[in-house]
Amino acid sequence: MSATPWSRRLFLSVTAAAAVAAVDSGCSLLGGGSTTQVKAAGDQTLEKSKINVSLIPCTDVGPLWLAKKNGYFAAEGLDVTLVNKPSGPDVISSVFGGDADFGFATYPVLVQAQLKTKGKQNLRVVADASAAKPDTTAVVVKKGSPLTRAEDLKGKRIAVTARGTMADLAVMAGLRAAKVDWNTVQWKQIGFADMLPKLESGEIDAAFFAEPYVTIAQAQAGVTTVFQPLTGALDGIPLSGYMATEQTTKERPKTVAAFQRAIRKAQTEAATQHGDTEVKQTMVDNANVQPDIAPVIHLPTYPISADPTRLQRVPDLMQQFGLISDKFDIKPMILPELG
Questions:
Q1: pLDDT digits (tens, 9 = 90+) for 30-61
Q2: Distance (Å) of CA 77 to CA 24, 44, 128, 328
Q3: Helix 273-287 vs helix 62-69: angle between axes, to the nearest 10 degrees?
Q4: Which domain holds residue 193?
Q5: 14-27 b/e with 16+ CB inside 10 Å = b?
Q6: How far is Cα 221 from Cα 60, in angstroms, rounded to an integer?
Q7: Which residues constitute the signal peptide according to the record (predicted)?
Q8: 249 and 220 fall within a common domain
Q9: Same domain, 258 and 208
């Protein structure tokens, strides 16, 4: 059997398998769910108990899977359905459209979505999800490629999941550090599932991978890392967060607070040695990562609070690279912890 078809099946399974989580709670993938008021921790009555959370399956959402698996949502009176989406913009659409109560996306996507609404619909960051750490992302080339340095990528075809996300922002920052004009790059928007086959076939020259795809591609095809974009000046930069519409946070503050508490507990646990092992197991359970690969996956940092000063690094970087034209103050987007 050739490597390429098998590669695509594995990558497709990693991307799609998280959708299995969407049937766990037994409620519809779309639609609003129950609005029956139930008792949560601390004897608080929730405005809505059955909620949908849209996400992109990756290591960033490990604590989210952990919160569901370990019953942290249930302890707060929440019946959570996790719905897999292919990209950040798709997550945003599901939240604005009402199909999801909460969503997960990278901060550049959140900032641009907020700007596009022009105040008609506001997004609020309800919890931080992840921050950059070495070895969690990589710009890779196929085995044996003559491209070995960032300087070699000038004018090349580089795959990212979507433009205007942390993916291409990180690559541009890495190229700038190597004094390479990122405007010469031929950007290719390709889902993670299709990147490795296209890399091996020569349709693209390089690809930006995030974990667990970095480790899978290394083990499966022997890809070579050209550079790690989220290191150096970008080490520790906030990557992604959980959001809801401002309307949701105002109309269902107790539900939002319950979600925040469950996420905070899971993020706190993920920072421990035992939690690290548990999060890696969620990759096996929810993202079809092979058991022998999971232990060597590199996880990001999981912050327990959304600090405005840290998060401001993202829109500042976006402005530097022309993703946004004016300075953007992210602090008003951040919802304080409600409980």
A1: 223 333 444 555 446 999 999 999 998 889 99
A2: 16, 9, 21, 36
A3: 90
A4: 137-234
A5: bbebbeebbeebeb
A6: 24
A7: 1-21
A8: no
A9: no
